[in-house]
Specification:
Length: 151
């Protein structure tokens, strides 16, 4: 084992004996911001990885990508899916029957929505105004079905 390996191994082995001020100094050297919740074991493990990465190099981009894909495939945590973009041309009029009447919403040239002479920044804001409760605008106006629109 060369001196570099011994040096890194010694640095990693010494982490538990450091004061918290020393741990934070190392953290600040490697990371742009501190974590919200502190757990010494977590801090030490991340610093240990960075010490080794600095000495021996990190993962190449292809290996990193493959590991992320494996994690996504096998994770029990649901990943948010990307919303499908809905593009509406200026002048488009959306009609929704609600409360025994038809509601007409016009898409303006600046990408806002006009309803009964009022301007709204989003279709969801219009839907919330009409229904009186939170709604997805695209869902409310039939541009997507419940559970749809994500890839």
């Amino acid at each position: 084992m060369n001196d570099q390996h011994t040096s890194v191994a010694a640095q990693v082995a010494a982490l538990p004996s450091l004061t918290m001020a020393e741990v934070w100094a190392l953290w600040d050297r490697f990371f742009p911001r501190r974590p919200d919740k502190t757990n010494r074991v977590y801090l030490e493990s991340r610093i240990a990885y960075k010490l080794q990465e600095e000495a021996f190099g990190g993962l190449d981009p292809e290996t990193r990508r493959r590991l992320v894909n494996i994690g996504v495939r096998h994770s029990k945590i649901k990943q948010p899916r990307k919303a499908r973009d809905i593009t509406l041309a200026p002048g488009t009029v959306l009609v929704r029957e609600w409360g025994d009447r038809d509601h007409h919403v016009r898409v303006t040239a600046d990408g806002t929505f006009e309803y009964e002479g009022k301007q709204f920044k989003s279709l969801s804001a219009v839907a919330r105004h009409i229904a009186g409760s939170p709604w997805s605008g695209p869902l409310f106006f039939g541009l997507r079905r419940a559970g749809e629109g994500y890839e």
